[in-house]
Amino acid sequence: MQPQPGPLTYRDATPDDVDAVVALVESAYRGESSRAGWTSEADILDGQRTDRQGVLEVVEAASSRLIVVERDGALVACCQLEERGDGAAYFGMFAVRPGLQGGGLGRRVIAEVERLAREELGAREMQMTVITVRKELIAWYERCGYRRTGAKTPFPYGDERFGLPTRDDLEFELLVKPLACGAAAGGAEAADAGAAR
C-alpha cells in the first residue's frame, strides 16, 4: 500500500524558485511533456510559454505575487495573483504538473487563491484571460464559476516571448468571477486546470 500524499502548502515564490517555475510552466503547456496533461497548447503554439525574466518580474512586482504550491517538498503547481484595483484581482500563470492534472488539484489551488484574493486583497472579482480557441479550458473555468465577458484582446503575434503561433486566429478573452464572502470554486467536476494567462 502506497503512503497517502502530504497536504498542499502555499507560499510566495522567491528568486530561487524562478528556474523551477519556468520548467513547470513549460512542461504544462509546451512540447511533448505537456501532452501528459490536458492543458497542452502544443497544437496551437510552439516556442516558449514563459522565460526566466518574465517569471522574475512577477516575483519582484509590488502589486503581484507568484504563489508556488508544494506537496512533500516538490513543486506541483503555481499561479500569479495580482491586485488590479477597483476591487479586482488577476489570476494568471496557472500551471499544474501534467501528471497530476485531472485529479482535482487545480480546483483546490484556484479555490485557495480566490480565498487569498478575497481575504488578503479585499477583491470582489477575479479576472483572467484565456485563449479563445481553448474551449475545454474555458468550459472548465465556467464550471468553476467564471463567465465569459466577450471582451477580447489580440494575441501578441510577432513577440516570441509568448510563443510561436501555428494558426492565425488566436486572441484572449476576459473571464470574470465575483468573489462573494465564503464563495469557493464552483462545480462538482473533478477536472483539473492548468492555465490562465
In words, what does this structure look like?
Pfam families: Acetyltransf_1. This is GNAT family N-acetyltransferase. Helix content is 24%, strand content 31%. With 197 residues, the protein is of the alpha+beta class. It has a single domain (8-178), classed as Aminopeptidase (3-Layer(aba) Sandwich), CATH 3.40.630. The strands form 2 sheets. The protein has a 7-stranded mixed sheet, with helices on both faces. Strands 2-8 form a two-stranded antiparallel sheet. Helix 1 (18-29) packs across helix 2. Mean pLDDT is 85; it is low at 183-197.
Instruction: Please indicate the count of domains.
Output: 1
The helix-and-strand class reads alpha+beta
Strand content: 25-35%
* CATH topology descriptor: Aminopeptidase
Report, as a whole number of angstroms, the end-to-end distance.
39 Å
Please give the share of residues in helix: 10-25%
User: What's the β-strand tally?
Assistant: 9
* CATH architecture type: 3-Layer(aba) Sandwich
Q: Give the helices and strands as they follow along the chain.
A: EHEHEEEHEHEEE
Unreliable segments of 5+ consecutive residues: 183-197
**CATH homologous superfamily name?**
Gcn5-related N-acetyltransferase (GNAT)
* Rg over CA atoms: 16 Å
Shape: globular
Note the main sheet.
Answer: 7 strands, mixed
**Major sheet: order of its strands?**
1-3-4-5-6-9-7
What is the residue-mean pLDDT, rounded to a whole number?
85
